[in-house]
Amino acid sequence: MPYELQELAAISGMPGLYRLVRAARHGVLVESLDEKATRTLAPARNKVSLLSEISIYTQDPDQTVPLTEVFERIYQKHGAASPVTAKSSEGELTDFLAGVIPDYDRDRVYLSDIKKLATWYGIVSKHRPYQPAEAPVAEAAAETPAAEAPAASPKAKRKSAKAAEEPAANEPLSTGGVIAETDPAPAAEGNPEATAPAKKSRKKAE
């Protein structure tokens, strides 16, 4: 993720951007995203718009571009410095957005939206470091062969015959992590712990 937008928000009636600190009784405690980092209480009546939940309309009615991806495209094309501001001309602003989202919806994305986008990008890129996406770690091409176990004696084979169907202690669960209730195990034949019924002694009649 190029810029972390999870805690950043625009608040109605309050200029700039803010970092959400915590919820308060009568609103939200926020910190201004600037050099002063002033903390203040945003009243509950003010609308809080998280940047991570904002998207740009495209000509496909079923598709939008998340603001995080828009910021990534702007950075890749222009770097950390935005080429436009809210005071740029209409042509400069529309060309700017068309350069990063060629198929943006000209009818539903207003000029005021592009001005906000330029302003927000300037604030975020100034006070939040760009974080390039981490490259996926390549898996090892060859696996280490398992060590061969020594041959078991015939006596050991007989003792382990009944336990052969039980999973090993380090074997992954085949249930995908869902462990079913354990059924009571039936009494095993020849179990030395099992109690055999006492035999009655028979006496010969004299």
Can you tell me about this structure?
Helix 2 crosses helix 3 (111-127). By secondary structure, the chain is α+β, with helices and mostly antiparallel strands. The strands form 2 sheets. A 5-stranded antiparallel β-sheet has the order 4-3-2-1-5. Strands 6-7 form a two-stranded antiparallel sheet. Residues 138-144 and 159-206 have low confidence and may be disordered. The chain has helices spanning 67-78, 90-100, 111-127, 154-159, and strands at residues 8-11, 14-24, 27-32, 39-43, 48-50, 55-57, 64-66. Strand 3 (27-32) and strand 4 (39-43) form a beta hairpin. It starts with 7 loop residues before the first strand and ends in a 47-residue tail after the last helix. The protein has a domain at 8-127: Orthogonal Bundle (Arc Repressor Mutant, subunit A), CATH 1.10.10.1650. The longest helix has 17 residues, at 111-127.
Describe the SSE topology.
Elements lengths: L7 E4 L2 E11 L2 E6 L6 E5 L4 E3 L4 E3 L6 E3 H12 L11 H11 L10 H17 L26 H6 L47
Antiparallel strand pairs: 1-2, 1-5, 2-3, 3-4, 6-7
Helix pairs in contact: 2-3
Q: N-to-C terminal Cα separation, in Å? A: 99 Å
Strand order of the biggest β-sheet: 4-3-2-1-5
Poorly predicted runs are 138-144, 159-206
Helix content: 10-25%
Name of the level-1 CATH class of the domain at 8-127: Mainly Alpha
CATH architecture of the domain at 8-127: Orthogonal Bundle
Which percent range describes the beta-strand content?
15-25%
Assembly type of the shown chains? single chain
> In total, how many beta strands?
7
General form: globular
Number of helices: 4
Organism: Hymenobacter armeniacus
Biased composition (Low complexity): 135-154
Domain DUF5606: 5-51
Pfam family, one: DUF5606
